[in-house]
Known about the structure:
Layout: E1 2-7, H1 13-28, E2 33-37, H2 42-50, E3 54-56, H3 65-77, E4 80-85, H4 88-100, E5 105-110, H5 114-117, H6 120-123, E6 128-131, H7 134-141, E7 150-152, H8 160-163, H9 170-175, E8 182-187, H10 193-209, E9 213-219, H11 225-231, E10 239-243, H12 249-253, E11 258-261, H13 269-276, E12 281-284, E13 300-302, H14 307-319, H15 321-339, H16 341-358
Parallel strand pairs: 1-2, 1-4, 2-3, 4-5, 5-6, 6-7, 8-9, 8-11, 9-10, 11-12, 12-13
Helix pairs in contact: 1-16, 3-4, 10-14, 15-16
Amino acid sequence: MSLCLAAGNPQEGMDLKQIFFIAQELKKKKTRFFILTSPGSDLYNQAKLWGFPVIGYKLDGSSRWLSTWKLCRLMKKNRISLIHFFDELALNSGVKASQKAGTAVRVASARSDFLKKVPANYLKSLDSLICSSEEVKKFLLKNNLSVAGIEVIPPGIDFSRYQDRQKKNWLSKELGFSADGVVVGLITPLDDLKTLRSYFEAFRLLEKQAPKVKIVILGQGELHLEQLRHEFPVEMSNLYFYLGFLEKREEIFSSLDLFIFGAFSLPEDYLLEAMVWKVPIIGVMAAGRSDLLIHRETGYLVPPNDPAALAQAVIKLYLDRALSLQLSEQAYNLVFNKHSGEAMAQKMVDFYEFLALQKGVKLAREGHYT
Length: 370
């Protein structure tokens, strides 16, 4: 019995990386598998270079009779017991063929736009959808899908992207900071006046107690500056705004000396980015709101709407470099162990084995690959 990783023609680099991380884990566990993809695609060519077993078959989203019959024969020949469809092209091309071939386990990766591209009746044949985040899962559940299960497995971070990159001072140059300044980035919902007012009070305290600290508010969305100017003075020498920051996300995060995560409702991707760049983090939230931020282990937590506590936390991490280094190192290790591409692949293969066990299927092993 074989396991099949099927994708039409993934374009995004991370989509390719995800498949290769999983392939490496399967190879390490000596599980018999192959990659099924369109001939000449980036996935096909790179899988060949990596030495992974790959079969070329045009997965263009077609489910016509002849195409389905040919693909069914291919699946029977290779004795596929579990197939993972990574994109809509592969799913639309292969779900009928996998049913006719008697494939025991069928799973598919699902994005937020998944339902627009896949017929609803195809979902009934799947044993599980695999989502990249809880947000995507919630979106799919709202549509009352007729699917056996939905599993959340984040795509994983490719740490090789960061290994040869050094932290920069791009943001300091962009905003004209002095070389000895300390750059603190804040991400928070910009339309919450009460929360912003609390932050401005904290920054006013910092302006007096730590003049070298520069606060940069990052974000997108509506910012009620005019109303704030009436309610609270925002003209502070240590306060700057960098809106639309996502276009320069890597440059900004790699420039920060300290990062304030302003609300637990924000995407945890921002936390992961800061942790990978080893930026010490202050979380404005109650303990337990995030499994990434553990007080005095992977970050420093302060309660919401407490300007004095936030100002003191910034000063604490600014002055105590040993503590800042310890928190950032432990945060980095946590992310690598739980959110790296390798960790994702282990979770994915464990999930394959769990589904196979439920169906009474034993995934075959091989001694070597060519």
